[in-house]
Fold these 3 entries.
Entry 1:
Amino acid sequence: MLQGNSCRYACRSAEHALARRQFLGQMVAGTLAAGGLGALTSPTIANAIAQQHKRVLIFFMSGGLSQLESWDPKPGTPTGGPFRAIPTNVPGVHVSELMPHIATIMDKLLLVRGVNTSEDDHGKGQYLMMTGRRQTPAEEHPRLGAVIAKAQHADGLDLPGYIQITPGGGGGRSADAAYLGPQFASVVLGNGNPPSNTGLSGGVTEETDGMRQTLRRHLSRHFLARRRTAQTDAYMQSYEQAQRLMQRRDAFDVTKEPEKDLQRYGEYDLGRHCLLARRLLEQGAMCVQVSHSNYDTHNENFDFHIEQVGEFDRSFAALIRDLDDRGLLETTLVIVMSEFGRTPNINIYYGRDHWSKAWSIAMAGCGIQVGGAFGKTNDHGTEVVDGQVDHGQLFHTYLRAIGIDSTENFRIGGRDVPMADPSRGAIDEILA
């Protein structure tokens, strides 16, 4: 049912210690034959390609955001905790009082309150939410960002097709594209810093570097004439993307944003990361993922959620308003997810444990019926009573919302591999 206008504290797990396809195919084939992907660094071509695509912004609330202290409060019940529910600008839809800013933009959001994934392990829960499939020893599946980058041919754009912004670490390319190939794997920006090694080494001028690149492409052209394989293409593509990143290094510099924006988003890590995400989306990034951690609240759940949700509420609301004001929300799907929710029951340490049988995610932007809530849990939040969905259905829905046929296959190594779990389908009731 669609409600509204339209429809010493963690568990110490290891995880917490033109037709665009034809056009791009011809461009890639032509530039490879002519000496690499360098021609695709043209700003005019890159911008024309970028405008044909929808974008995705993922917020991953690492550790397991409590649905009861965010999207699906149950005040006045034994499981509800100490916080009130407050009305939003959508009649009949309430959120936790920890989200006063988000309450004012609920008309731009959709809450999905009937998620049941039946997986309470951090690693496995994150895997199934990011891939739409359960983890098995038989095969590794690509994450959502890699699937989007591959499906929309992001390997020809200036910026990487899939960018992750993490609180710490990172700085290199992940292995999260699985069989899609390294060119579609995420580039991880540790603590929001630009990709490492994207400046010229000391003593190397732009003229000298240009001569080096010309020689490399010349040699590559002769090599590929006889020995071209998927591996050599990926190898060459990594060089071309490195060069494009060097030319677009300023895209990652949030200090170029006005001071008033830095203050409005919040002068803490998540605020800066949200501002960086907006900057990257404005400059043509296809899929950006922002991580916000410390939600694994087995102890002192309520104290931690006051701090964490308070940060998220301010920064997220500012970002959604900006995307809307700048016309980007019409072409950007925003997803707020975790690996699971938290137990309705409160433990002896005033914490909530892992709970995947009845929890919530939120979405905004293109392709979605915003301005309400879909699905419902019972009065104590212990089970879904209407509109139950799982990870596979959500994955199909994300792809459909940005115009990708989620029932299509990728052609990998001479065989067809489904983009999404073929045993599941999209949630048609929430698609615009």
Entry 2:
Amino acid sequence: MFRSAAFVASIFSLYIAGAMLIPAAVDLYYGHSDWQVFLVCAMTTGAIALTVAAATGGRSPVRSTRLAFFVVVVLWATLGFVGALPLYMASFEVSFAGAVFESVSAITTTGSTVLVGLDNMPPGILLWRSLLNWIGGLGVVVLGLFFLPLLNVGGFSYFRIESSDIEDRPFERLASFLRALAAIYAVLTLLCATAYAVAGMSAFDAINHSMATLATGGFSTHDASFGFFENSAILWIGTVFMILGALPFSILILFVLRGRLDALRDPQIRLFLAYTAAIVLAVAIHRRVTADIPFGEALTSSAFNLVSIITTTGFASEDYTLWGPFAVTVVFFATFLGGCSGSTSGAIKAYRFFVLGRMLQNGLRTLIYGRSVQPLRYGNRVIDEEMQRSVVLFLAAFFLVWVAGSIALAAGGMDLVTALTASLTALTNVGPGLGPIIGPAGNFSTVGDYALWILSASMLLGRLEILAVLVLLTPTFWRN
């Protein structure tokens, strides 16, 4: 098991080492000395990864659920540490805990940061953060569509989605699906970058922000995030592409490649769009009434910032904690929501809320008609007991880990609001929390190494749907 996990992690580390050459070339072009850091890290990482791959390859592993759990966790933890190397060795000063936090935040598409002075940061570092966001987003989609569902952790796999009216699979081979997925992901990123550039961003800003937008990652090249641009067109472009990033990519492929308009009737898509629209309109109307802001302006800022929270992107165009108690309360609860299964977003996700709603509805009917059999349906297919159990198990684990993380952070000296929202935003992969320290106007640079390690672990837990990590902590997992 250890041998197989080391082999897989080394292969993916080779890809990350190759990716380091891109920011190296950018720094060299701009005449910044950090190109040497990226080159050394790429060569060192590549050499170590090749050595490990040669030492651990050549033997077919015994495939098992236990191996899959272990490989997934080891892989993501390894990528977090490998991605931290250029950040730790760069020309600016950051602790190793801070570098790992930044890298894990990027690869899990969380968007929390410990870096200050982004406007004057070396271009290679800015691009590296965005590139890790983008790579992490693509990895999240593959993870959520194929691997975690097979382990009964991450919801509906691509072949289990609400398309049960089709007798044959829309993509018989995994390789063809992955090619289509990568192509659509890249094309959407290119379209987003083009739209940002046309709306007024520089080419460098457009490339970086498009990668972070599609990945719902939230890393910006400016300390003020989207507040730097003061451009409503840019905010609406970001809103649209964040929503696209939070849709299930398998559905997008059915729609784009097969023209399957009915695929857009997936129940989780309708639920996600419904609660997003309701929340945005409620806050926009409240701001119009209480703050006497023009409705168009209120709608623009509310749509961008709340969609950013709901889709777990983490961009901000202004400090929404100044919008009043109602808006702050809405933002807090919106942090739990998330997008759709099989998307780049995190948090609880729409399909779990849909299943919970059906379970509640079914439970109430059973109270009235005690002997009746009421099957739970997801569109045209029945939600089996295994899926219902996995949803309840996930929610129990979610709230348990959130409480434990909050207590651990409070033990390190954090106040209640900061501890609660820091733990929550890490676990849901949202990015900013609430309060003056980690709110949209702040960052995580002052929380200390102890808190950064806890939050890094929480981000990985949230990205891997919690249960995939917790199962490794049980004695049963390690028994022969």
Entry 3:
Amino acid sequence: MRNPLKFIQEVKQEAFKVTWPTGKETLQGTLMVVAMAIVASLFFLLLDQFLKFLLELLLKVSF
């Protein structure tokens, strides 16, 4: 890095080239993340309950 001032100017130029998401795109992305988090949590809840059921069944049979 030769000149810090030139570096900062180049960073600023590159930042202006960035295509920032619109408000609608941000909202859609947020809703998708929330929806996938809910789906994943429900999946793991059901998997946990199923495995709990199997373990309780196995323990009842063994005694």
